[in-house]
Amino acid sequence: MALFQRTGPAPVQSASETGGMSLRTKWAIGGAIGGGALAGLLATGSSALAVYFARRVITPSRQRTADQEVLAVIRDGQKQQVILAATDDTTVDGVYGFFFDGGQGHARIGRIVSYSPSERTVLREVEAVYAGDLSTARWGWWSGAVHPDPAAVGLPAEDVLIPVDRGEAPAWLVRAGGNARTWAVMVHGRGASRQEALRAVGPALELGLTSLLVSYRNDGLAPSAGDGRYGLGSTEWRDIEAAIEYALANGAEEIVLFGWSMGGAICLQTADLSRYRHLVRAMVLDAPVIDWVNVLAHHAQINRIPSLVGRYGQLMLGHPLGRRLTGLAAPVDLKEMDWVVRAVELRTPTLIIHSVDDEYVPYKPSTLLAERNPEMVTFEPFQQARHTKEWNVDPERWERLVKAWLRQQLAPRLNPGSAAAPRSPARQAPAGE
Description:
Blueprint: H1 23-42, H2 47-58, E1 68-76, E2 79-85, E3 96-100, E4 105-116, E5 121-131, E6 139-143, E7 158-164, E8 167-174, E9 182-187, H3 201-206, E10 210-214, H4 237-249, E11 254-260, H5 262-273, E12 280-286, H6 292-302, H7 307-318, H8 323-326, E13 350-355, H9 364-372, E14 377-382, H10 390-393, H11 395-409
Parallel strand pairs: 9-10, 9-11, 11-12, 12-13, 13-14
Antiparallel strand pairs: 1-2, 1-6, 2-5, 3-4, 3-6, 4-5, 7-8, 8-10
């Protein structure tokens, strides 16, 4: 979920640690500034940067930046290996997707064969090339989306259309055997696609869940919103509600939500606002956005945007007068999507999986949510997975955690209205796990 290109390393900090100001203070300042101060900002030299910051956050990017260099492809019979420029991504073991030729090419990249720190190169296995000619590729981008479609995973799937505002949203439907009464609705992150959710379909099937891998407004597949802007979860949840309605009309009786990155924020909004929220049995969130103020402060810092300019950019997103500058049809209420502050209001059992070295969405709000609501939230830390690649680094552990936790949540209830079985307490990130 890259909001900006990184321009330099920076430590991951919570919003309360950035700018020397607590979250409560930031909200108080935001509420006190009002329209007059916003107008004053526009008269300053910082206004252009603040507008850029705000617009960049909510404007969908139609083309990913090809920032990963391919140095050579080596063929040994039917097998291939690729030499890549060593980066923070390519030097972590695991299995990944690599997109090239503007996204038309897609390869599955496997284990590290060798790594030369002095030459800054890494040699990795090529497990499969789904599309394009990797031997001619020179640049591309790294991804957690390993497979292009359900068929590549060996899963029979149906292409379905879900009625949403302004049209129909394509989705993949992967049915479990028998008449599955519980469906998994899977929500990808910002700038990603439903391919991202394919990693979770296998565990869902093992649990007897039918999976619906959805698209939503502004993701390039579903119809765009009227303003063509992300709502950061505040508007997209309506498309997930439509997906739940589709599931209920086709045999589902209850729902498990899966969400990655901004998809996690969308799931939280769905569980809070949807008229079907009472049917959401559980949520599995991978590197979710728990607090947008924290994420935006983090991105301002790593892009060397002055903290005051970053805070004014946030104000533009939430203030009615900012709409003329951001292009939003309605302000985005970041406070309503701060689940650290609203922790006790979360009443849906939730598993959060988050790497402690996530470079895009700091993990601290995930831990704080679990600490403040241990009855509902279980936190499982990963190491070295960076953003939304926990499955890629350790698929066995990811799947084991998800299946064990969901089996507990989906176990038959003793009596209608009775309390669910005790849930695992929130875990802290032990050093060196």
